[in-house]
Amino acid sequence: MTQGPTPRPLSDEALSGVLGAQRFGTLATVKRDGHPHLTTMLYSWDPGSRTVRFSTTADRVKVGHLRRDPRAALHVQGGDVWSFAVAEGEAEVSGTTTVPGDAVGRELLGMIPRAERPEDEDAFLRQLVAERRVVVRLRVNRLYGTALDIER
User: Which residues span the domain enclosing 40?
Assistant: First the structure.
């Protein structure tokens, strides 16, 4: 039997590129019993500060997990099924946005690409308050992932 291609590790730059090219990934948090809790999340990647940001509501299970144990990881699929990136680190959860246009609301608005920003930002900021939104900031201290070069 012939040995097929083996996965090659991706450089930090390539891993950052995978994170920047995607918008959805699987966030893993740690449940009280130690098992992982996985959820698909829309995210924003800031390569300069090595921070992944997520918008969620204050009452979500993952928020409770992260407040108890800040360890988390984000798995992101690469451009094909043979590549991926994982961003590991410790997360912090912001306070809840309580006043339209407060710092948390502005950070949430800033996570949206400029071309996709809502036309009525004031209405959007009011909606964030009504939904009790928070920002989860995953400070990445380790990136890893691979690609598999195969002929298609």
Answer: 8-146
What is the full DSSP assignment across 10-28? PPHHHHHHHHHH-SEEEEE
With a cut of 50, which residues of the chain have pLDDT below it?
none
List the structure tokens of 101: 């246009």
Specify burial of residue 42 (Cβ count, 10 A radius: 0-12, 13-18, 19+). Answer: middle
DSSP assignment string, 78-106: -SSTT-EEEEEEEEEEPPPP-STTSHHHH
Number of compact structural domains in the chain:
1
Neighbours of 113 (CB within 10 A): 9
Domain for residue 1, yes or no?
Answer: no
Reading the block at residue 1, the tokens are 């039997």
d(CA 111, CA 138): 14
- Judge whether 55 lies within some domain: yes
Look up the pTM and report it.
0.93
* β 84-93/36-46 pair status: unpaired
